[in-house]
## 1
Amino acid sequence: MKDKILSIVENYERDPGRLMDILLDVQKAFGCVSCEAIGLIASELKISEVDVVQTRSFYHFFTKEPVGKYAVYLNNSVVSGFFGMKEVADEFEKQTGIKFGQKTADGLISLHYTACIGMSDQEPAALINSVVFTELNREKVRKIVADMREGKAVEAMFSQYGDGVNAHPLVKSMVKNNIRKTGKVTLGEYTPGKGLAKALNMESKAIIQEVKDSNLRGRGGAGFPTGMKWDFCARENDSKYVLCNADEGEPGTFKDRVLLTERAAMMFEGMTIAGYAIGAKEGVLYLRQEYVYLKNYVENVLVELRNKNLLGKNILGKGFDFDIRVQFGAGAYVCGEESALIESAEGKRGEPRNRPPFPVQKGYKNKPTIVNNVETYCSAVKIIENGAAWYKAMGTTESAGTKLLSISGDCKNPGVYEIEWGMTIAEMLEMVGATDVQAVQVAGPSGICIPPAQFNRKIAIEDLPTGGSMIVIGKNRDLLKDVVLNFMEFFEDESCGSCVTCRSFNMILRKQIEKVVEGHGIKTDIENMTAWSEIIRKTTRCGLGQTSSNPITTTIKNFRELYDKRVKDVDYQSDFDMHKAVAESCEVVGRIPNIHE
Amino acid sequence: MSKAIVATASLAGCFGCHMSILDIDDRILKLIELVEFNKSPIDDIKTFTKQCDVGIIEGGCCNSENVEVLKQFRKNCKILISLGECAIMGGLPAMRNGIPVKECLEEAYLGGPTVGLNSEKIIPNDDELPMILDKVYPLHEIVKIDYYLPGCPPRADLIWNAVVALLTGDTMNLPYELVKFD
């Protein structure tokens, strides 16, 4: 063990900033990051054991105890639930004889749940030893477990690959792209290097001006003006970094998956242009662990770009040096928040930072840093190529250009659509073939849940902003149980625990909605949930706590009757039961309970 | 105006909140003009003799007697106030909530370092004794509570301001210092 860990640590030049990579390699080599391993890593990196432990304990793909030789991580997101996750889980448990959260006695198989793995268009899906399995059903599970017992390699358990790059020799994945509609920007025609060549002939200030003029706004969901962000960063006098946020963790989002698969070169080109514009020499792609199946391919794209002189030293002979490395996460939704992402890329717990200072002032390694979404960088390439005016001509006045939507749930054609901003929800539903719709969850759990009466609203930053997640909820679904409760369980799990209200109120809200779902709720519970949601929104540091109560507040606002139907019309009700409460102590002391009512 | 009638009790608390009531100093003279006490340790009236306007309760519920007293208060008081950390959240006594009752009782009467005199190894079980609950409950989980005054203990000024505001109908004076605890 010692030799192996030593060689892993050496691979990363004993840099504590690469602790994430070190722990990922250790987890892969030993099936866990044991206490013994922690001790070794700490002494080799010359940091305290606690520093290693706190990083390990933060991410759910790092485990203290060994996972099975085959570690099954089944996605328990809302859409997975819609399409039979319970049956799939049940079959796994039947075939293996263990429950989720357990490991078979022989150590062969362990079963785990995990949050959305970015496959909402092909659910139920699971990761088995990091390999993606989609559209699972009972029959497929029986075969998979039988293959495991035979000791088959996970990659050898299937031979049908998905379309496009998914079938590339370096990917060989069953994942389908499900590209349903291409537009002119991110999924339109793309000639590698064209945008970059043009950019390198421009002044860096002119590039920023072009991006500003295009009105491009952050595609991760927050919609911050990209040009302004680049400008702020460019003004700082220090070495700078370009980070790409590919930690697409918002349940129901999978458009970055498709870009990473089909437009990896474009994304890197966008990062390179950004690097030139702000004056950076290094970039980091922060990629979520769930997409590790793309690792070899994406890294190979970087090699090819270097070979073509589109990356590396003296790019295209213009004297500009820029290179990019890939940083993997290890399973934490909150790392999609930019300052948490930076912490994570530095090898620490993914806890959001206090602001100011903003990342453009002090970001990665405390240097000025821009963090943009995959789609933002891809869009920037086209903006430089075709000009701001061309870009601005698409979309609405306030939301320029196109947007990739990941549409899933109860519709005929789930998948990725590149649309111009400004489309109404009704038009979108027609486009995806959705009828009998009860609600649409716009922008994932942290977004809003809207009823049919609002389907004339526009998908645009000024009306319904979204990072891309659109979940169609059919009339047959139990909105509170199948959707809201699931979302609250998700936030409870994913809160980093740093802010007290986020840590505790997400649990309290989950319990409260569970009480309502189970039919024990009273009218006061609805008022309490509304009041408490306000508290958590106001007293938390990052977007997670500020939006985690949205599933509850937006459904109370838009679907109040679903709550009223389920709660008793009383102001107070106690669940206290004296008989139950005294039973244990009476038994211990040996007396018969005497209760006077 | 007739005087408002006030009752108080300390359940699973330490009487610290009652001490804090006494900390109102000379305002106790004004208090006597404002209210009349019924069941309360302050005047040692053991049982309710009439309907009260305000009930102020310190401490959570750790045993069956606490629950009975609390329910009497709810029945006999128009308004109930949870006074202090233990009443509101269980407080220090609730530290046992993560430990099985059996382990707690065994530690207290059989295995702990101070049980040397319990040579017969008896865990008290007389019928006259209150029965221990499975955990310590905050008051609002058992009866409806109208107001909460936080603190350990709540400051005398907070208690005074709250009670006076409640009785006079005036707006409560709640400066930041009164509810700032660190």
## 2
Amino acid sequence: MPRTDTVRSNNIDIRVQRGGSGGPLLFLPDAHIGAAWLLFHDKLAQRFEVILPEHPGYGGGDAPFWLERVPDLANFYLDLMAQLDLKRVHLVGAALGGWIAAELATRNAARLASLTLIDPWGLRVDGVGGIDPFASVDERTLRDLFFDARAADASVARVLAPEGEDALLKGKMVTAKLAWQPRLHDPQLAKWLHRIDVPTLIVWGKEDRLLPPPYGAAWQKAIPNARLVTLVGAGHVPHVEEPADTAGVIVDFIAQQRVAT
Amino acid sequence: MKIFNFHLMPYAHADMAEIDRNGAAWVTYSNSHYDPVKGAQLFNDYLDELEKADELGFDGVCVNEHHQTAYGMMPVPGVLAGALSRKIKKSKLAILGRALPLVNNPLTIAEEYAILDNITRGRVIAGFVRGIGAEYHSMGVNPAESNQRFVEAHDLIVQSWTKPGPFAFEGKYYNLRYVNPWPLPYQKPHPPIWTPSSGSISTIRWSAAHRYTYCQTLAPIANVARVFDAFREEADKCGYQASPDQLAWSNAIYIAETDEKARREARPYLETYGKFFKMNPVMMSPPGYSSIESVKRQRTMRGQRPQTPDDLIDLGTVIVGSPNTVREKLAASQDLAGFGYSLTKTQFGTMPHEMAVVNQAAVAEEVLPYFKDRVPQPAKRAAAE
């Protein structure tokens, strides 16, 4: 079981879960499932010290005044890594977390050993439409993240539990701030992704209906030498739907980088 | 009481079965269902009705703003107001839009209102709204910025009308090196500002603090009274007593010879009026548009059964009946809620032009003369309750 700390940075307290041992792996969660410690994290914790922060504004408390755009969170996590004195970090981000991780890596990758983006938001592929995550009721939105709607049961039960109402409502407000317009992307990001100079893995759910697989190809093309792995039987959140496979792909990728260097 | 004639300009040829299937008349109801030949006729009929309202002695005419919906065909209300501005000779011209946060340069609204105010020689009423939640989907504006954009846009417009230009406006959302709009409004310091809302406490508080006129959208009269009470309380907190002229109630009136006949005739159009409201509840309430507290309040109100035409009549959301009944109910509503303006639709839903014209004439003849100088009589409030 992970331990939970409260860490204060940039005038906000956030919850940080840590578990496992090994090199540091910082996981930036998505906007819908959030910072739950999942089987996926247990798998990774067998090889790494997994560090799982809850994004500011998503835990039920009020969002800090400075939180308006994804680059704000990129800078926040750059500060957090420095504050926690993390080095040779394997940075992994899913969906919104992937967008933050990519933005962070274009700014300063000095503390990163590798970057893994799981169905990240942040890019726009013209002509490739997906489901609008702002158009449906909460349960439907959650189930739309999955290839197999039944695989969403546990997430639906946890996220929509009555005691989580504040976190849900406030989190949705922050997600709207960050990703409403332009929808789920930043037109300024694509032109700087070439600066990312750490080994990069793109993981894509073959059945992602929010951001279909052409998005994965676009990310691979945008980041030098990035590797793309497409997971069959997974939707927008492969780390939740196929935790063992997703963790396995990441562990293998990082191991190969060690051999190569 | 001042009685204005308010038009929504619905696309009356909308396919109601298709709206049912789609689950909404807003945002996602395809515009492939719009027939411009029919639409052209409707625009001309509706403008005829509002021009007639001026001749019939209504104190004002109202247009409003909604986007991507069959509910109303006035996404750019200034165009309709412009068409009316040279025709209406006596009545006020109230634009119960514009949705300030939806534009990227609110000075265009300052300019538009100023032109209309010049053409009408000072008969414009400047409505400022946020737009309903669905509009943040159709216009691609971030709902989480809605409140701040509204306040900032308002400040910019009012300053542009009252502070000699050029000056710089340095806001967060609106940043302009040169603010110096030509023309300026005819009315000084500026046209009356009205703030229509569905009852948001933050809008009520803000409107009362600025001593503006608050307009309540369609709601049962008991709710309207509570909302207006809240406005009066907020005014008290600001150290002044709200006047009835700061409160406007949006309603619909239908008159026939008898109550029974009026109900029978109005029912189908109240039914379609309701259908035009149909929208995806998620789109109605995008994240950040309302405070967490009001979202929670709305959640507890879910599951209320949809209102039938008879509900609308019985709850006093609309007034339908014989001339005598309509007069009694309107007077009782005024005494209960204490408003000085009635913004009255005489066409609603899919009601055809010919029928709307007859109803409008009946309201002009049977209602307007009786309410000319009528003020709320709070002593009668208990009876009305």
